[in-house]
Every structure is written in structure tokens, then in C-alpha cells.
Amino acid sequence: MSKAITPRAQDYAQWYNDLVIKSGLADYSAVRGCMVIKPYGYALWENMQAELDKMFKDTGHQNAYFPLFIPKTFLSREAAHVEGFAKECAVVTHYRLKNDPAGGGVIVDPEAALEEELIVRPTSETIIWNTYKTWIQSYRDLPILINQWANVVRWEMRTRLFLRTAEFLWQEGHTAHATAEEAMEEARRMLDVYTQFAESFMALPVIRGVKSPAERFAGAVETFCIEALMQDGKALQAGTSHFLGQNFARAFDVQFLNKNNEQEYVWATSWGVSTRLIGALVMAHGDDDGLKLPPKLAPIQVIIIPVYKNDTQRATVHTQALEILEQLKKAGFRVQYDDADHVRPGWKYAEYELRGVPLRLSLGEREIQQHQVEAVRRDTREKLYLPFDQLPEKIGDLLDQIQQDMFHQAKSFRDQHITTVDNWDDFLRALEEPGGFVYAHWDGTPETEIRIKELSKATIRCIPFPGQLPDHGSGHCVLTGKPSARRVLFARAY
RNA sequence: CGGGGUGUAGCGUAGUCCGGUCCAUCGCGCCAGGUUUGGGACCUGGAGGUCGCAGGUUCGAAUCCUGCCGCCCCGACCA
């Protein structure tokens, strides 16, 4: 075992780090809190991007790109927004370096201070709304439906690979609308897009809902989210969508002339998902032997491994393997053939399991004689034999099956980790055992929400949309006993 | 920012308490050749080191002293 992974049961955080590093998704970098996304991890991100991008385009959005740097004054225009981000902004103060006269290498040239400091974007609402102001005059200019793929920087105190890094990659949608209804519809539509992406591509079941005021995005009127559950029982926000009301339009004075010839502030939304989704994928599906990637996103869907005992066999197997490789490529699968001769089949089995490749095909003399390949599923380790003449169909079916089974596996885990409780003792107990989500009444006050967090480390993940979870009607707050209109979903979270 | 840990070859480590026998141990990986190949092979040979950095103590420092730095983990804050 050259690449030992810490078992989940022993140390979950270490298991996660081991998986990310050893599967080749990412590396630590020389910069504190910043990581290198390695080719395998980036390929995964590209697959996610491709699917999301398609969904954005299908819902009428276009991509654009706004500056990395934001004038400092922009950030302070919207009061809640600046309060939310001020503590974690990287600031550019100078534009030039020079040789240290004292001989200490290169130093910041004190003569080259910027007149107005620039903020490295933690999110782009401000620069975008400053721009939209110049694009919008009439209701005929609306809606504006724009998305950008970008990097952002949030100077986090504590970072974790993919889950929380100082710099990360994401997409941020920013839309402008003539009416509140339309903007609200947009925010809800994009949350549906995220839901569909999470569930059918990532095989990650999510609960849709509204954020409590305390968890709301800085500057939003309403924040919607999808919440997923990780195997250690902690929740992870997998995507958010915000109804921004007229907050940014007011802050940047973006008005339009409506059909009645009246000036009106524009209605806004923003929505985003980030490379953190890769962390979600790792933690929702992985096991002690490595990643399990859902077929729809896996950079390698099928790996072909040759098995032989001598050069004669090797040649035979090689010829057959190439034929299968071509056939599968032609059928549109992301397939690779590993004919490296310096490691043996067993090594390769372990390696591709670590990397989470959904389906492994082994091909040796035995299989060739019987006109079949040995196939092993990564998710269940089930071994099957597939006849040569039905490979593309059978493999297509298998990958679909794996995709579905992974979703159901995750969903069944998630459902077993939602506990409905009615008193504080049970609340605390449920957070430990079984862990996960706790569905309880809350009196609706921020004070109680904070108190619950202090006492239990659990936060309100969301107030689920109707139909997401059973509605038990009104009741009494799990902490204060005060009247509560409905249950909300609590959990400890990433 | 607080608490803990850690820094020795690409990775993981021994040695540090008690200085010399260490121009530094072992495993993995790497290179060459050979034997192998159905669950992380083996043999032989080889390459690879500012012992985190700076200063100090000493005849002599990976080891002792002072200062600094990096990174990881836990907590507070956040996607």
C-alpha cells in the first residue's frame, strides 16, 4: 500500500485531505490558503462547468466578464454588503516594485501607492451594478441575464482544500429585471437549475429552502439555497440564489423608465456555485479506498486494464484492448486504456479506485477466449462480464445504473440523517446520533437562532420549501417553547 | 486571532531528551538491467540532502540557546 488513506472513522478531516491529495485532484501551494487544482481536479471542474453552462444558456443567460479589481468605494455603497465582506478582502495598494536599495531584493515602491485602493473581488455585485447603470435606461433594456465564470478572493482565516480556500473558482449570475415578481422567479428558477445539476449530475440529493435572516447573503432581501449532507453528518451549502430586491439598484442608482413613463429602480438577482462542489462530491460519495465519481461528471468514465503473463499474451490483449478502446470512444464514452508495463494490474486497480473511476474493465487471455470483458463497478465493487458484441450498450446501461445508484445511496443516507425532534434534549442528541439534519420548531427570532448556535454549534440550514419535507404545521420552539409556525432544518455545517 | 502539532531526499520517516560512533536511518517512489504480471511484485546496481531560515554556544550542532518563518489540525468567522 503505497498510498495509505486515513480511514473515515479514524479522522474524517484527514481522510478528506488524503483523498483530495492522493487522488490527484489538488495540491497545496506555496501561498497560504490557496491551492493548486491539478489536471484531474480541473477536468472534473470543466465537466461541471460544461453542464452548468449549458443549463444557463438554456435558460437564456449569456456569459460576460467583469474586472477582478473593484474600487474600494464601490464596496461601501451597499451597507449590508460591505459589512458582510469587509473582514475578508484582499486590497491592492501599490502598482510597482523596485529593487531594495538596502540590497534585500525587491520591495514595494513607496512612491507607487494607488490613489484609490482596489479590492480583489470577493463577489462582483458592486462592479457589475456600477456597469449595469450605464446599460439600462428603459424597460426595453431589461431583463439583463448575465453569468460570469471567474475567480474570487475571500481572505478566510481558516482554509480547507476546495471547501474554503482564499481564492476559488465559481460562476456568478447577475440579472436585472423590471419587476420584483420577475426577479423572484429568476432566483427560484436558478435554484431549480442548481437542484437539477446537483441531483442528476453530481448524484447529490439536496434540500431547497430559504435562508434565515442571519444566514442571508450580505445585501440580499431573500437568499435561497440547496443544502446537501456529507458522510460525517455535516451539512454543506451546495448553491445559493439571491433575490436582491432593489438594494443594489438603489446603491448604484440604476433606474429605468417603465411602461408608464415612470422612473423605477431595477430588480436584481445573483446566484452562484463554486469549486466547493468538488469537495461536496468527495465527501458525499467517497469511501476509505478513494473517490467515487458520478459517471456524468467523471473525467474518466471507463478504464481498461490489460492483464497478461508474457509478451505473446501482451500483444494479443493489446490488440483487443485497442479495438475496445476505439469502439467505446466512438460511442462517446470518456475511456482510457492503461497499458503501462511498469506497474501490475493490481496496482492499477487500486489506483483507479482511488481516483474514483466509475467502471473498470479488465481484459486478459481468459476474457478474450470467452469474448467478454470483466467489469467492476467502483460504487458497489460488483463484478460482471460483458460480451464483446454488446459493449457500448451494456456500458452505457451500467454507467446510467451507477449514476442512479449513487444518487439513491446518498439519498438514503441523507434521509436516515434527518431527525424530527420536539425538545431540546432530543435536539442535542440527534445532532450526535444519528447526526445530520435536525428538523425542529423555531420561534423565528434571531436571538433564539444565535442561542441555538452557541449551545449546539448547529445553524439553521434552511427553511425548506413546501413539499421538501413533511409539513407538521405549527408547534413550539425547540429551545424557548414559544409558538412556531413551522419546522426548520438545523445542522452543523461546513 | 487563540490552542495544538509539525518542519530531515519527490513522499512518509529514524535520529533531537542525553552534542562526537551521523560528510545522516529506513520504507515508498525515481533511474538502469533482469525476472515478473488476474488485487498496490521481486532481485541487483544507482542517483538524489543548504537536516525550515538566521544568529549564537562549542574543539565539534539535525541534536543545546535565541529570534524568525512556513505548513497542517482544532476553535472563533465565512461559500
TrEMBL record:
EC number of the protein: 6.1.1.15
Subcellular location as annotated: Cytoplasm
Gene3D superfamilies in the cross-refs: Anticodon-binding domain, Bira Bifunctional Protein, Domain 2, C-terminal domain of ProRS
SMART domains: ProRS-C_1 (SM00946)
GO biological process: one example: prolyl-tRNA aminoacylation
Stretches assigned to the Aminoacyl-transfer RNA synthetases class-II family profile domain: 30-295
Top-level taxon of the source organism: Bacteria
Keywords: Aminoacyl-tRNA synthetase, ATP-binding, Cytoplasm, Ligase, Nucleotide-binding, Protein biosynthesis
Catalysed reactions listed for this entry: tRNA(Pro) + L-proline + ATP = L-prolyl-tRNA(Pro) + AMP + diphosphate
Keyword Nucleus: no
Quaternary structure note: Homodimer.
Family: Belongs to the class-II aminoacyl-tRNA synthetase family. ProS type 3 subfamily.
Notes concerning its domains: Consists of three domains: the N-terminal catalytic domain, the anticodon-binding domain and the C-terminal extension.
Chain's role: Catalyzes the attachment of proline to tRNA(Pro) in a two-step reaction: proline is first activated by ATP to form Pro-AMP and then transferred to the acceptor end of tRNA(Pro).
Protein name (record): Proline--tRNA ligase
Source species of the chain: Thermoflavifilum thermophilum
